[in-house]
Design goal:
mainly alpha, single chain
């Protein structure tokens, strides 16, 4: 990352952020700034995780070109696994899904050379189902590809593929047993510790719990 002389405004904003800053505080700062794409790019240039989350919030989606999106996502790779997946997911939720032209980009990323773009492709497919939007008619095709490729994929993409399979299993009963079997065969996340009240990523547990939640709501 090149050393860039920051404006006084950028320096003032950055002085409000440290390692203890919470995501809610970042959102509050972003709300006060509103949209300021030039400032966002300055803050992004620091290469620091929390400032980059803030930068994502104040970017102007209309000023994001395919080239600049590729550049931003390539630059996320300097971060740790946890940080770069958070940045990618935050970028998707706060910028990319808010413009049709960017959704078209997401849908083209299945075989992108950038790992995080492949993650977003799969996370977006799962998110369409998770958020209760109309279920696309591509579930069978997605499951075929997940079964074929999930064990060869990078960890951040594996998680998103698993996430998508989970929500297919929850909302599409005709594929439920297949999705549960996928989890049993891959064994992904089977031994992960799960905090009380949280749903496991292991597909048999995830699907069983989430289906039960929805059945309980319907019976209330």
């Amino acid at each position: 990352m090149q050393n860039i002389k920051l404006s006084e405004k950028a320096q003032e904003i950055l002085s409000q952020i440290d390692e203890q800053t919470m995501l809610g505080q970042l959102r509050k700062i972003a709300k006060e700034i509103n949209k300021d794409h030039a400032l966002a790019m300055e803050i992004w240039s620091t290469g620091e995780f929390l400032p980059r989350l803030l930068a994502i919030l104040i970017m102007d989606k209309q000023l994001l070109s395919p080239e600049s999106i590729n550049q931003l996502m390539a630059e996320m790779q300097i971060h740790s696994l946890s940080e770069r997946t958070n940045l990618a997911d935050w970028f998707m939720a706060n910028q990319l899904v808010k413009a049709k032209k960017h959704i078209t980009l997401i849908e083209s990323w299945e075989k992108s050379r950038l790992v995080l773009q492949r993650r977003i492709f799969w996370y977006y497919q799962g998110r369409l189902r998770w958020t209760g939007k109309k279920i696309p008619d591509n579930s069978l095709d997605l499951l075929d590809k997940i079964e074929e490729n999930i064990m060869q994929e990078e960890p951040e993409v594996q998680w998103a593929m698993n996430f998508t399979a989970g929500w297919i299993g929850v909302y599409e009963e005709e594929y439920r047993e297949r999705c549960i079997k996928l989890g049993e065969v891959t064994g992904l996340y089977k031994d992960d510790m799960v905090s009380k009240g949280c749903t496991p990523n292991y597909l048999p547990g995830f699907i069983t719990i989430e289906v039960a939640k929805r059945n309980n709501k319907e019976s209330e």
